[in-house]
Amino acid sequence: MNNILVIGAGRSATALINYVLDQGKENNWNVTISDNNLELAQEKVKNHTNGRAVWLDVMKVNDRRDLISRADVVVSMLPAHLHLEVGHDCIMLKKHLITASYVSKEMYQLGDDARDRDLIFMGEMGLDPGVDHMSAMEKINDIKEKGGKLTAFRSFTGGLIAPECNDNPWNYKFTWNPRNVVLAGQGTAQYLEKSKLKYIPYNRLFKDIQPVEIDGVEGEYEAYANRDSLLYREVYGLKNIPTILRGTIRNAGYCEAWNALIRIGLTDSSYPILESENLTYHGLMEAYVGNEHKGNTVKERIASLLKIEAKSEIMKKLEWLGLFSKKRINLPNATPALILEHLLLDKWKLQPDDKDMILMQHQFEYKLKGKKHLLTSTLIMRGAGSHDTAMARLVGLPMGIFVKLVLEGRITQTGVNIPVMKEVYAPVLEELKEYGVEFVEKDVVIG
């Protein structure tokens, strides 16, 4: 095997592409980078001797299957809902498949077919999910091997802007898919706390937050719960653990302000606003307030709706976004969520010299020899600029390393999986250390 196909050449694919091209030169691999923007694919390949860029409209089935048929390993960097189409092609054409996205129920249903064909389908092989799974499993197994019994596991990850590059009141900029940020948390979060099930609906999610202390980086941080932490009890070998929670890290104050956007209705993607192109942001905000919301200005009436002071920090954040400006929206029949995303794309755009920062922290409570321990394992990683982000590295490098393991015949687990087995996480985490991906651990006795 020596033929790799990467479908999608966007920002998060950069580190992956660079890795497989560099390895391709050493191992005589042929690397094809496909995208519906040929210039972008060509820019990523940079005339590399082992790489080629091709145009692909992934919805053109015959073109897609033709490219897949020539590969041994396919890496899909497409939006998550398109992975299944590629998955069916890989089953039919007998090709291995790797993605960074959460594995859907429909993708898991391809497991038997993949095993029957000795195919490796690996999902959740990026950052979150991905590095979080692998680094957590390494510590969970270490604790078990020394005789410890886990009583609580909490895991938090955030893609943020580095503190020295914070230049807006939200202390946030886009380092990954903006649509996912705008729609984050919709649904009901589920987790386990002291053997009791906990459910947090979307309208409370950004209020029910908890502080996260990160040594080694300035600033205060908080986390909101991910959608379903319960899925990982069995996957992590923690079926009977009393407490398990996975969450997303933000700078302190972000969640409270984001909750205001939810309460106003600006994250709703369920309906279009007719003739929204002719509406101003000021007019949109005015449309959300009723007669019961008192005030002389739209800003004051929005503050009344939110039951906060018009001069509060939350209102300052909303005003900074431009939500009370007379600027036209210029998006026809757009949903509130799309209007918000369009606005944030400008306000939260990474500047050329901006550096992003990944924070990840696992908290393990366990009992060993009659004593209760708290082990924290923390990763802090900064990017080098807007074209070399920590997010792109930590999404792309694990996939690239896994591609190498597959091509070298070092992976034996077939079917549809996520990276929780030692034959995957041990070599991937070891090589990631060469790229500065190192966790700092602190183990203290707490009882």
In CATH terms, the superfamily of the largest domain is Dihydrodipicolinate Reductase, domain 2
The number of helical segments is 17
Under the CATH scheme, the architecture of the largest domain is 2-Layer Sandwich
**Structural class of the secondary elements?**
alpha/beta
Strand content: 15-25%
Describe the structure.
Helices cover 35% and strands 23% of the residues. It is α/β, with parallel strands linked by helices. The protein has 3 domains: 3-123, NAD(P)-binding Rossmann-like Domain (Rossmann fold, 3-Layer(aba) Sandwich); 131-257 and 351-390 and 438-445, 2-Layer Sandwich (Dihydrodipicolinate Reductase, domain 2), CATH 3.30.360; 272-334, no CATH class. The strands form 3 sheets. Strands 3-2-1-4-5-6-15 form a 7-stranded parallel beta sheet, with helices on both faces. Helix 3 (61-69) crosses helix 4 and helix 11 crosses helix 14. It is globular, with a radius of gyration of 23 Å. The N and C termini lie far apart (53 Å).
Q: How is the topology of this model organized?
A:
Blueprint: E1 3-7, H1 14-27, E2 30-35, H2 38-45, E3 51-55, H3 61-69, E4 73-76, H4 83-93, E5 96-99, H5 105-108, H6 111-116, E6 120-122, H7 131-145, E7 149-161, H8 178-182, E8 188-193, E9 196-201, H9 202-205, E10 210-212, E11 221-225, H10 232-235, E12 243-251, H11 254-264, H12 281-287, H13 298-306, H14 313-321, H15 336-347, E13 356-368, E14 371-382, H16 390-407, E15 415-417, H17 422-432, E16 440-445
Parallel strand pairs: 1-2, 1-4, 2-3, 4-5, 5-6, 6-15, 7-12
Antiparallel strand pairs: 7-13, 8-9, 10-11, 11-12, 13-14, 14-16
